[in-house]
Amino acid sequence: MKFMDILKDMFAPIEEDFLKFTLPADDNSISNNKIANETFNTIDDAKEIFSSIDVNIEYIKTKYNLLINSDIILREFTLSARNRQYRAFLLFVDGMVSIDLINNYVLKPLMLKNQSNSFDGNQTQVVSEAVTNNITVRKVKKFDLKDYIYNNLLPQNNLKIRHDFKDIFNSINSGACALFIDTLNIAFDIDIKGFQFRSVAKPENEVVIRGPQEAFVENIRINTTLIRRIVNNENLIIESVKIGKISQTNCAICYINNITNNDLVAEAKYRLNNIDIDYLISSGQLEQLIEDDSKYSIPQIISTERPDKTGTYLLEGRIAILVNGSPYALIIPATFIDFLESSEDKNIKFQFANLLKFIRVFALCITLLLPRNICSHNLFSSGVYSYRATLCYCFI
């Protein structure tokens, strides 16, 4: 009994009654705290970006805990547009963005006076001009700060306008930079990633002699690039989906339009979009969540680190799923014969490839069906065990 009591003290949860305590307070302090909590909850649950820059700063400081967070940078500055001054600030994660790109292609065009932002003239803009029957027709658009910054002051190829804090926070956590401007209830999502990642190297687990010597890495965008280089077709579809309430892990569903069965694509999207977990770290974790029944030991999904193998399966009508942070791709669906093939088979003559498949099937049968009582004889035990181990190695 003492042992069980010790285990209860070590692992049993603490009763909630011990955690409850109250402080003496009068009615005025209780009402003030209630009003303060309601105000805080209203701001804390905000979804859309505020037009006031001060409110946005306070909200972001609360969400990112800027008083104790050392890698979250909030850079306030004054923006120049048409000889007018606007308060603005940048929000990014130090170490995940390129500082040179921020200095040269974000802060410099916005802060320093140049021909783009110091134009002093009519605040209207001629969008188009046409001459019909000697009559000039001009389409004039009034000055709009949002469009002016988007079209003239930010020389970035990947620039998006966001209206919700959730989208902005997801981009910042992925290595982007956000620009907030006073009087605007939107934010500019600037893709200037600059964090370090592992370069493309040789495969370690699926080594071949003849064939490509490239393997997936932990960066999902590099992995999609490797697949698109191999498939080399405009019908290749790569859809993004986020999994995990807390982690918001980026995943990609890859398939070839007009080749892959639409019902298969719909089933894959349904399973991914209905995963209810807090975080997703690796492709192995995702594999267990989307398979039919995890109780079976027979694998139902192919996991590969080779882009050429993934591209081959895509051209056959399969679906590939990539997870950011994992150097493996998940191929669905999988058949039994897929696990008896090798990437080397497509680089040699079909006679030799079929012979190797036959040897693998034969080795599988011997490994699974060889009677165990034969191994009990001292005369053959060592030889049979070594033979079975050799067959297992050939099968693998």
Textual characterization of the structure:
The protein has 396 residues and is an alpha+beta fold. It has three domains: 2-190, no CATH class; 220-340, no CATH class; 349-395. The chain has helices spanning 2-11, 27-44, 53-64, 99-111, 145-153, 165-173, 220-231, 262-273, 283-290, 307-315, 350-369, 381-395; strands spanning 72-81, 84-93, 124-132, 135-142, 159-162, 177-181, 187-190, 236-243, 249-256, 302-304, 319-323, 329-332. A five-stranded antiparallel beta sheet has the order 1-2-6-7-5. The protein has a five-stranded antiparallel beta sheet with strand order 8-9-11-12-10, sandwiched between helices. The protein is globular and about 85 Å long. Residues 35-40 and 375-396 have low confidence and may be disordered.
Uncertain spans: 35-40, 375-396
Shape: globular
Order of strands in the sheet with most strands: 1-2-6-7-5
How many distinct beta strands?
12
Largest sheet: 5 strands, antiparallel
Q: Give the distance, in angstroms, between the N- and C-terminal Cα atoms.
A: 50 Å
Question: Could you state the order of secondary-structure elements as H and E?
Answer: HHHEEHEEHEHEEHEEHHEHEEHH
